[in-house]
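Box S2. Input/output pair 1.
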Amino acid sequence: MNSSPAKEFFHSCWKNVNFMIGIIILVSVIILAIFAEKVSPFPFDEAHKDAILQAPNGTYWFGTDDFGRDMFSRIINGTRITLKVAFLGAAIQLTLGVTIGLISGFFGGVVDKVLMFIVDITWCIPGTILALAVVTVLGKGLTNSIIAISLVNWASYARTVRAKTMALKNMAFIETGIAFGEKPISLMFRYILPNVVPSLIVLVSMNLPGTIMSTTTLSFLGLGSQPPSPDWGLAIAQGMKYISRAQWMSIFPGLALVYTVFGFNLLGEGLRDLLDPRLKSQ
């Protein structure tokens, strides 16, 4: 008896080592974010004046910072910031990239040239410089840094969606929709977009590590999250001041960042193999 497509897909997921390890890592991060208050032994902003710059021990597993705050509690609560960066950044990038890519690929002509000119300009400017310029205009803060990074990274989505749209818009099911009087917006979002979703899922999972790292960099430079936020980039920057005395202040947030980004990378590799193997050759 032939198994259903759903069973075959889940079986493929189970056999894909990258996907399984990636999903386990990300599920663990999500669980920590949801139950941060219960997992953390102390409030992340609670200062212990008698425990300033203590090395890791039985009470403070990851040591304390220069205010006597428990590093383990701050790192656990920092998972929420990282997930906010990932999901809000992906939402903004997808909204911009998918909309512009669909319009550009569907209408073509002058519309396509103008929109692709904007995409090319976005790609020509170094991402970090453009993000710094946007943050300078919008002001410091986590949300503004996410917006800044998203305004830099949306172009890859637009390119992918445009290429898929141009390949699909002349197919028979689109011509059938036109014959039945479907409007362009309906053709783009009801007919074309569902066929682009698998590629978008792969692209999102592979781009999220870059979004997280870029936003962390802005926090490290003092342009993202502001004290007393438990943001990992901010924690690494604060720890650099005491790198010779209290290495744990930078090491543990750095390991947490590597762990999360590694999970997203593995998940992206696994999804690429499962949903769109052709991307391997691109």
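Box S3. Input/output pair 2.
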Amino acid sequence: MTALFALATSLLWGLADFGGGLLTRRMPALTVVVASQSIAVVVLGVIVVATGGFAEAGPRLWYAAAAGVVGPVAMLSFYKALALGPMGVVSPLGSLGVAVPVGVGLLLGERPGLLQFTGIGVAVVGIVLAGGPELRGAPVQRQAVLLTLTAAFGFGAVMALIAEASTTLAGLFPALFVQRVTNVAVGGAALYVSVRRGGRALPEDGGMRVVLASLPALAFVGLADVAANGTYSVAAQTGPVTVAAVLANLYPVVTVLAALAVLKERLRAVQAAGAGLALVGTVLLATG
């Protein structure tokens, strides 16, 4: 069950990242974040009210609130790092956030078997290579590296926090709701500051019409991201966090394959090798 839910997480996160990447070509990244997460808040709010989920509210929701604060900061750091580039260096470094939940699992006493330890190592290398790292000829600004490492730590911290936000399925929905409300609050504040400083909240060409036309895609991105957090939380509750975190972090492979299938992007040799290693690591983790 752990492997199944963790792989579902990687699929959902990979597709959400792919959709979000396409949307940011048409509108500001902050607008994509705030709009997609706002839709998720509405849907989750209806679910929580319908299921009486607020009865499960407790101190653990502070973990969800913390995840909601850290998530947008990590995402904005990652976007800024991508803008500084090169993407072939930034993207693989961003995957290193898996070290945070894996480290937490080890500190809590989890001890994967030999096959699983091998699978973790192979899968992490595969994840990094799947991003298509530029191994030479790619000057990197120190600021880009610092921003990327900040984002990676943030992404990993969100995984660790959301795993602690609930211990039951009934408590999962209010935890996700609190996380998304906090996401919107933090992202909305950042968008407000950006506009005050001369940034744009709406696309330069098309304005609000483009945003309204993109609502189905924004809904998909927001809901897929929420569902991914939910499946990861279940995976972390039903098995070792060290295994769940690595399998969930296969999402860059999904994003690369989606770009290959939809945008007809060519897969570089290093990316193909990374995807293969990630698959081998997955098999080792699932069978170990």
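Caption for Box S3: The CA atoms of residues 24 and 232 lie 25 Å apart. The chain has a mean pLDDT of 81.
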